[in-house]
Amino acid sequence: KKGIKIAKVELKVGWGTFAPVREEDIEDHEIHEEEISLSQTSAGIINETIKNRGDVWAFGTTVTRLLESCATEDGFVNAYDGKTNLFVYPGYEWRIVNHLVTNFHMPDSSLILLVSSFAGKELIKKAYDEALKNEYMFLSYGDSMLII
């Protein structure tokens, strides 16, 4: 009724998701691979949303990596079944995702770099300060934030 369309994806989250980034230069970090699958049907739903100037919401950083991994140069997505090793960090040029729902991540993880790239380092720092001050729960089963 509200015009919201749901595109289902398949993800196999790798343990490397939780590995810390230890390199001084983040570009030297070897990001983990994750298995992803975006069907032709789901790609069509997403592309129709983009074509109609709708917003694409990602629920989770792995979904975000999937969508950005399937992005084309012209700002749409292609169906895909395989692996991604896309490493998103500040300076990344976003093509697909407009809004992100995610939890609070470890400070030295690739995931904190992804959300910092999306929202900006200062806004993420403010959000984390607020979360710590109010004793929010962190990690996979903790509290979430909506970045719009």
From TrEMBL:
Keyword Isomerase: yes
Keyword flag Methyltransferase: no
UniProt keyword terms in alphabetical order: Cytoplasm, Isomerase, Queuosine biosynthesis, S-adenosyl-L-methionine, Transferase
A Gene Ontology molecular function term of the record: S-adenosylmethionine:tRNA ribosyltransferase-isomerase activity
Residues in coiled coil: none
Protein name: S-adenosylmethionine:tRNA ribosyltransferase-isomerase
SUPFAM superfamilies: QueA-like (SSF111337)
UniProt-listed Gene3D superfamilies: QueA-like (3.40.1780.10)
Biological processes, Gene Ontology terms: tRNA queuosine(34) biosynthetic process
